[in-house]
Amino acid sequence: xxxxxxxxxxxxxxxxALAWNSVRAVFGDVPAVQLVxxxxxxxxxxxxxxxxxxxxxxxxxxRAVIDDPQVDVVSIATPNQxxxxxxxxxxxxxxxxxxxKPMAPTFSDAEAMLAAAKQSGKVAALGxxxxxxxxxxxxxxxxxxxxxxxxxxxxxxxxxxxMADPNALFNWKHEATSGYGALDDFxxxxxSLLFTLFGRVSRVMCDMSKPYATRKTxxxxxxxxxxxxxxxxxxxxxxxxxxxxxxxxxxxxxxGRIALQIFGSKGSILFDQERANEFQLYVTAxxxxxxxxxxxxxxxxxxxxGQFIPAxxxxxxxxxLKIIECRELIKRINGQPAHLIEFADGLxxxxxxxxxxRSYQEQRWVDVR
Amino acid sequence: xxxxxxxxxxxxxxxxALAWNSVRAVFGDVPAVQLVxxxxxxxxxxxxxxxxxxxxxxxxxxRAVIDDPQVDVVSIATPNQxxxxxxxxxxxxxxxxxxxKPMAPTFSDAEAMLAAAKQSGKVAALGxxxxxxxxxxxxxxxxxxxxxxxxxxxxxxxxxxxMADPNALFNWKHEATSGYGALDDFxxxxxSLLFTLFGRVSRVMCDMSKPYATRKTxxxxxxxxxxxxxxxxxxxxxxxxxxxxxxxxxxxxxxGRIALQIFGSKGSILFDQERANEFQLYVTAxxxxxxxxxxxxxxxxxxxxGQFIPAxxxxxxxxxLKIIECRELIKRINGQPAHLIEFADGLxxxxxxxxxxRSYQEQRWVDVR
Amino acid sequence: xxxxxxxxxxxxxxxxALAWNSVRAVFGDVPAVQLVxxxxxxxxxxxxxxxxxxxxxxxxxxRAVIDDPQVDVVSIATPNQxxxxxxxxxxxxxxxxxxxKPMAPTFSDAEAMLAAAKQSGKVAALGxxxxxxxxxxxxxxxxxxxxxxxxxxxxxxxxxxxMADPNALFNWKHEATSGYGALDDFxxxxxSLLFTLFGRVSRVMCDMSKPYATRKTxxxxxxxxxxxxxxxxxxxxxxxxxxxxxxxxxxxxxxGRIALQIFGSKGSILFDQERANEFQLYVTAxxxxxxxxxxxxxxxxxxxxGQFIPAxxxxxxxxxLKIIECRELIKRINGQPAHLIEFADGLxxxxxxxxxxRSYQEQRWVDVR
Amino acid sequence: xxxxxxxxxxxxxxxxALAWNSVRAVFGDVPAVQLVxxxxxxxxxxxxxxxxxxxxxxxxxxRAVIDDPQVDVVSIATPNQxxxxxxxxxxxxxxxxxxxKPMAPTFSDAEAMLAAAKQSGKVAALGxxxxxxxxxxxxxxxxxxxxxxxxxxxxxxxxxxxMADPNALFNWKHEATSGYGALDDFxxxxxSLLFTLFGRVSRVMCDMSKPYATRKTxxxxxxxxxxxxxxxxxxxxxxxxxxxxxxxxxxxxxxGRIALQIFGSKGSILFDQERANEFQLYVTAxxxxxxxxxxxxxxxxxxxxGQFIPAxxxxxxxxxLKIIECRELIKRINGQPAHLIEFADGLxxxxxxxxxxRSYQEQRWVDVR
Lengths: 369, 369, 369, 369
Ligand SMILES: NC(=O)C1=CN([C@@H]2O[C@H](COP(=O)(O)OP(=O)(O)OC[C@H]3O[C@@H](n4cnc5c(N)ncnc54)[C@H](O)[C@@H]3O)[C@@H](O)[C@H]2O)C=CC1
Ligand SMILES: NC(=O)C1=CN([C@@H]2O[C@H](COP(=O)(O)OP(=O)(O)OC[C@H]3O[C@@H](n4cnc5c(N)ncnc54)[C@H](O)[C@@H]3O)[C@@H](O)[C@H]2O)C=CC1
Ligand SMILES: NC(=O)C1=CN([C@@H]2O[C@H](COP(=O)(O)OP(=O)(O)OC[C@H]3O[C@@H](n4cnc5c(N)ncnc54)[C@H](O)[C@@H]3O)[C@@H](O)[C@H]2O)C=CC1
Ligand SMILES: NC(=O)C1=CN([C@@H]2O[C@H](COP(=O)(O)OP(=O)(O)OC[C@H]3O[C@@H](n4cnc5c(N)ncnc54)[C@H](O)[C@@H]3O)[C@@H](O)[C@H]2O)C=CC1
Fold this sequence. Notes:
InterPro entries (chains A, B, C, D): Gfo/Idh/MocA-like_OxRdtase_N, Gfo/Idh/MocA_oxidrdct_glycsds, GFO_IDH_MocA-like_dom, NAD(P)-bd_dom_sf
CATH class of the largest domain in chain A: Alpha Beta
Strand content of chain A: 25-35%
Structural class of chain A: alpha/beta
Number of strands of chain A: 17
GO molecular function (chains A, B, C, D): nucleotide binding; oxidoreductase activity
Organism (chains A, B, C, D): Phyllobacterium trifolii
Bound molecules: 1,4-dihydronicotinamide adenine dinucleotide
Distance between the termini of chain A: 41 Å
CATH superfamily of the largest domain in chain A: Dihydrodipicolinate Reductase, domain 2
Largest sheet of chain A: 9 strands, mixed
Largest interface: A-D, 43 and 43 residues
Oligomer: homotetramer
Shape of chain A: globular
Pfam families (chains A, B, C, D): GFO_IDH_MocA (PF01408), GFO_IDH_MocA_C3 (PF22725)
Keywords (chains A, B, C, D): Oxidoreductase
Radius of gyration of chain A: 21 Å
C-alpha cells in the first residue's frame, strides 16, 4: 500500500491524479495505491478536487500534505517556482518526491533539491513523461542493438504555438524573471529524450530570437518582450556525436511537435510526438530497391503498450505516458531498476539549458561542465 | 454514488475498469463511482482482477454480480455469446447495462435484449466507442453545420490483420458457428459511425471472400475455412446517399484502420482511426489556389478533449474513448441527453449486418427493413 | 527514322508532342524521330501548334496527316468520338496508331477498331499512361516475385473533383450521349492498372450515383443530369481474387487520385497517383516489432526512372509517363516486346466497363464475357 | 531563333538537353530553339550524344562549341572546376551563359566569372532549378501578400544519403581539395531558395562534422576523410529574421530532401522537395477549431504548372524544373524580367558558403559581408 499526496491540480496535477488512479489497474504488478491527501491554494478548491480525484483528505496548505503521516510519496505539480521549497520540504519530511519538470527556475535551487534528495535517501523523480512512450522506448532498444549502426548525427525540434499570437497581451511569460523563454519552457523535454537515448551533451552554441519585440499591455501601451520564444542550438554530445536542438513556442501550426531525426551508419529513425503512436525506421539491411522509411505503429510488442491495449495500432494518449512514469516511480521506490529521470539527471538537463543561455549571452561555444 | 458491476476482464473488461476508475477524475461532473463487484469465470481470477482494478467484491459466478444490491450498473465485457443471457438477466434484476458490442450472435437474441431493455425501463447501452472520439464528434458537428454542404458520397473501410497469417491454425473464428466473419467482427463499428454521422442504411449489396480457403488444424490436416475475412458492401443510406463499406480482418499492414471518406457539395472530410488524433477537412470556401486538405489536430476545443488535456495536439488514446463513453452512459442514467448507441440503435446495426449477409447469400440487393 | 503525325493538340496532344520531342534524348536506344505532320480543326491553329511543337507540316484536315507518306505513326489525341474514324483510317492507310484512351464511346466501334488493327498488321496502342510509372512497374515486378505472397484482395479508387461544383452549369458531360459518367471517364484507367498487375476482370456488380440530380442551364432553368459522377463496383478477377473499384469525378479535394491497395498472404502494397513518386510496401518478412509500411521513393533502380534522372527521390512528372509509353510504342513498332495496352486489351477494358454499366442497369452481377 | 551550345552530357547535361528540346513546346511564347553544337570530352561521345539529344554538330573540344558562330547561348554542365574557364571563355566569345551551380570551387574564380559577365553584357545565369517549382513560386507569392504575416523564423534542411555508406571507398569527394563537403555540395541550393524567398543572409555560425573519420582506400588501407558530410548553421537574414540551415549528404533514408519551415505572425508554410508537388499552409485566418496544415497539391493556377498540364494534382517532375528555368533564361535574354539566379546573386550565395566555412574554422559568428 502506497499513500499518495498531490500538490497542484492544474494540467499536470490532474494528469498525476489520473495516473495514480489507473496505475495498478493498468499494470497489475504494483502495490495498491491510496489517494491520501490533496493540497491546493485554498481549501475550497482542494476539497472539490479531492472529491473529483478520489483523495481522502484535502488542504488549502500544501504543508499539510507533506506532513501527513499516511503520505509516502508526494506529487508536486505546481508552477516551477514552488518546486524547490515543496520538494525539499517533502524530502526532509521523509517522503518520496515526484516533481514536475523542470526542477527549478535557478540552477542553485536545483542543486539544493538534489542535495536534499541525496541526504534524504528517498526517491526524487521528475515528470519527463516523453521518455516513457512505447515508441521512444522501442527506439531506445533499437539503438542499443545498433539496428541503424553507429549514430553520427542528431536533430531534435520542439515546437508549439501557444505564444504565437502577436495580439496576445504582454504577460509574465514575457518577463525576464520568468526565465529565458523557449529554452526553459521547451528545451528540457528534448534534452530528456537525448539523455535517455544518447547520453549527455558536452558543448553547446546557442542562438535565441524574439518573434515579436514588443507586446501590448492591458492598458494599451507597448512593452518590450524580454524572453526569447525561439532557440536554436548547435551541440556536441559527450559521445562525440554532433547535432542540433531547436525550440519554438511561437511556431504557428505546431501543437505538440517533438521531432527527432537520428542518423546512423546503417539507417535512420524519425519520430514526432504529434503522431506519438508511430515512428519511422530506415535500414540499409532491406534490399536496395525496397528501402524506405517504415511507418511502424505501436503495438503490444512495444513495451508497455500491451499493458494498456492487447491490439496493435489502437494508440495510447498523452495521459498514458504519466501512468507509465508512475509505474516506473513505484518500481524505483520498491528498489527495482526503473526508466526514470531523477534529480541527478534532472540537474544535468538544467545545467545544459543554462549553458545554452550563457552561450547565447556570450555568443560563443560553451562547455556544459 | 453509482455502484458498478463488471463481468469479464479481458481486452474490454480492463478497458471498462479503467474507464470507471477515471471517469470522475476526468469529467468532474459525474457522481462518485463505487467499484462494487467483479465477476469472472472463476473465483481466483475474479479476486485477482478485483484487487488490481479496485473492486470491493469478486465472484466466480457472474450472477452474483447481477444480484448484488449495491450494483446499479453492470459492464458486460464477455464474449458475444454471453451477452444476451447476461444483459437480459441484469436488466431483469433492475440494473442498467453497458454491454460490449455487438449485441448477440443471432438477431433474435438481440431482439430479446431490446425487449428486455424496454420492459426494464433501465438504460441499456452498447460499447461502440469509436463514435466518442473528439475528431469524430467534431466531424459530426461540422456535418450538422453543413461545412461541406450536402453529403453525396461516403466510403468507409475497417481493416486489421489479426487473421492475415495463412500459417495460423484453424480456430473457432473460422467456423461458421462463430458468425459470418469480417461482417460481424468489423462491420458493426463502421455502422456505428455511419449511424451517428448520417443515419441508417436502407439497402445493401454485399460481396464476401476468403483469403485462405483452408487452414491447417493442430493435427496437421487441412480444414475448410467457413467464415469470410473480407466483406465489401455497396449501400444506400436512408437519406439517399450512396456509399460503400468494406471490412477486412486479413489485411496485412492494417492494425486499427477505420478510414472514412465523406464527400459533400462544398468539400470533403477524411478520418482514419489509426491516426485518431487528427482529421482532414477540404472546403471550397478556401481560396482556390490554397485549397487543400487541412490536417487538423484534436485540441481542447474539440469536445471533450479539453477534459483530458488542456493543450492541443497532445493526443488521446484508445482507452480514453471508453472514459468518454462511460460519462455519456452516466449522463443517460441521470436522465440527461447522451451521445450513445443504445439497444434500439444497436439492433438496427445488427439488422443491417444480417441484411448484408443475406445479400451475399442471395447475390442481390437487400432492403434492410 | 520514324515519321510522326499528330492529331489534336489539347491536353493529351501536347503531351504526345512533348513525348515525341524527348523520347530519344531520354532513352537513347530509340531511332531518330521526325515530327512530320500535325492536324487540327483548322489550319491556323494547326500551323501555330506545329510551329510550337516543332512539326514540319500542318493541316486543318486530319486526313492530310494520315495520308502523308512521310508519316509512319499517328498520335490520335482528339475527343473520344473521333477515335474510331481516325484510328481506322490511319490503320487502313498503313500507319501505326497511338490512340488516346478510351477506344470509343460505343463497344461496337471499339470492336471495329480492333478489327481494323488486326487487318492492318500495324501496331495499335492506347494511351494508358498510368501503367508506365516506375512505381507501378516496380510493384508489378514485386508482385511477380511474390514479395507479398498470393494476392487475396484488391481495392482501387480513382477520384477527382472537376465535376464537383454544384454551381457549374449543365454541359455535354451531363448528357447521356456522352456516356455513363465516371465509369467511362475514369474506370478505364484503374482497369488498365488492374489488367497489367493482375489480369482481367470476370464478374462485376456496380452501383452508380449522381451527386446533383439537376443543374442550371445557361438560361437559368434546371435540367436533369443524365450521367453518374460516381460508380462503385464489386468485382472478381479471372484469377479469383475479389476486390472493389470506385470512381468519382465529383470528389471534392481529390485531384488525381488513383489509390491502389493490394493485400497478399505475406504483405501488402499501397500506391496513390497523387504521390506517384513513392509507394508503400508492408512485408511480414520484416521482424514483427519493426513491421510497417515502407514509403519507398522512386529511384534509378526502379526502371526506367534512371533514364530520366540518375539520382533517387527527385521525382518524375505526369508528362514523363507519356515519354515512357512512347518508347514502349517504338519498341513495339520495332518488333520488340513492350509494356503497352494495345487494342485487344483495350477492348477488354471497355467490355468490362460496359458490363459494369449493364450491371447497374439490371441491378445484378454480370459476367464480363 | 536561338542557337544553343551544350558542354557536358552527364546528369545535368542531359537535363539541359531535355529542357532545350521541350521549352518551346511547353511554353509556346519563346522563340524557336536550334540545338547547334554539343561538346564532350571526346569526339565519339560527343557525336553519340549529339545524335541522341538532337544537336547538329559535335566536338571533343568544348572550345569549338564556344567558338561556333551559330551558337548564341552555352549550357555549361561540366564538373565545377571547369565552370570558370568555360564560362569566362563563352562570355568573352559573346555568348550568353547558362552555367550549372555552383559557380566555382574558389571564391576568386567566382568573382572573375562575375567580372567577365559584367564586361560581356551578356546574360550569365546559374542552374538553381529548385527556385523554379510551382510550389516554391507560389509560396513566394503568398509570402509577398503576407498570407502568414511577418516572417519571424526559418528552418531549411537539405539531406541526401549518397555518401552515407561507411563501406564505400575513399574517393575524391573525401579530399579537402574537393571543397568543404556538404556545405558546397548542398548548402548552395537551400541558399538559392532563401535568397529568392527572403533575401540575403547577414551572419552565420556554422558547425560541421564527419560521420566517418576514415575510409578504406582501394588498396585496403585506412585514410582520413578530409571533408565534412554534415553542416549545421545558425543564421540571421539581412532582414533580421533568425533561422537555421542544415545539410547532410550522409543522411540515410533521405534522397532529395529540401525541407523548408517558414513561421510568420499569422501562420506557417512547409515544403519538402521530396514531395515537390505539394506544400503545406497553416493560417490563423481559418476558424480556430478547423485550423490545420493544408496540403495543397500543385495545379494549373500555380504558375507555370498549367503550361505543362491543364489538370490539377497530376504532378511535375524534377526535369520540368529545368524547362521552366530555361524559359526564364530565354525571357532574360530577350530583355524581359525573369525569375533567375544570375552571377551577381550566385556570387553572394558562394560568399555565404565561404563565410559558413570560415565560421566553422574560427568557431565564431561571421558576418557574410
Ligand atoms: N511533463 C509535462 O509534459 C508538463 C509539465 N508541466 C509542468 O507541470 C508544472 C505545473 O504546470 P501546469 O500543471 O501546466 O500548471 P497549472 O497552472 O495548470 O497548475 C498549477 C497548479 O498548482 C496549483 N498551485 C499553485 N501554487 C500552489 C501552492 N502554493 N500550493 C498548492 N497548489 C498550488 C494551482 O492552483 C494549480 O492547480 C510545471 O512545473 C510545469 O513545467 C506542465 C505541462 C506539461
Ligand atoms: N468496443 C471495442 O472496440 C471492442 C469490443 N470488444 C467486444 O468486447 C467483448 C469481449 O471481447 P474481449 O474483451 O476482446 O475478449 P477477451 O477474451 O479479451 O475477454 C473476455 C473476458 O470474459 C471473461 N468471461 C468469459 N466467459 C465468462 C463468464 N461466463 N463469466 C464471466 N466472465 C467470463 C473471460 O474470462 C475474459 O476475461 C466482445 O463482445 C467483443 O466483441 C472487443 C474488442 C474491442
Ligand atoms: N491518358 C490520359 O491520362 C488522358 C487521356 N485523355 C484522352 O485524350 C483524348 C483527348 O482529350 P483532351 O486532350 O483532354 O481533350 P482536349 O479537348 O484538351 O483536346 C482535344 C484536341 O483535339 C482537337 N480536335 C477536336 N476535333 C478535331 C478534329 N476533327 N480534327 C483535328 N483535331 C481535332 C481539339 O482542337 C483539341 O486540340 C480523349 O480521348 C481523352 O479521353 C485525356 C486526358 C488524360
Ligand atoms: N542543378 C542541380 O540540381 C544539379 C546541378 N549539378 C551541377 O551540374 C554540374 C555537372 O554535374 P553532373 O551533371 O552531376 O556531373 P556528371 O559527371 O554527371 O557530368 C559531367 C559531364 O561533363 C563532361 N565533361 C567533363 N569534363 C569535360 C570537358 N573538359 N569538356 C567537355 N565535357 C566535359 C563529362 O564527360 C560529363 O558528361 C556540376 O556543376 C554540378 O554541381 C549536378 C546535379 C544537380
